[in-house]
Design brief:
Elements (H helix, E strand, L loop, with lengths): L2 E2 L2 E2 L4 E8 L5 E6 L2 E3 L2 E2 L7 H13 L4 E14 L5 E10 L13 E5 L1 H12 L1 H18 L28
Parallel strand pairs: 3-8
Antiparallel strand pairs: 1-2, 3-6, 4-5, 4-9, 7-8
Helix pairs in contact: 2-3
Length: 171
Amino acid sequence: MSNTGDKPYTDGITQKAILFGPDDQVLLTRAGGQWSVPGGTFEYGETIHGGLRRELREELSVTARIGAPVDIVYGAWLDGTGTPLVTTFYRAVTDDRAVELNDEHDDFEWVSPATARERLAALFGRRMERVLASAVTHHALADGETNRHSGTGVAGVSADVVAGVDPFAAR
């Protein structure tokens, strides 16, 4: 383990939440005119999940259940010096619909997984399509294959998601 003085190295690592709300929509936040997903770095002494829960409370005033990682990406985010970060994306779920943003964000919106993919792909490209497809699949498997209201997959996503078919791939 690298050591920077008297505490272990925690730089260069961040975590983000694909946060599903009560209506199976995904929360996006906006800062500096760009849409993103919430999250941040963990602090010395925190668990990874604990750090992500703290970030969601600090940034959004929401309480979330953090699931398993859905993907890991290098270089999607940069630190303050421009150095690429390793980002682990987690499926997270909240019962909170109300959001109170801190000063890191300008706006937020609950959107369908397809809309989240469109907005994030504009900035991050295909890697975010993969992240969102994986999160939607994990969410569908965790919550059951069928949405009790629509008879289709979670939030209207077809059963292809549950079968592992990328719902955003061109057909």
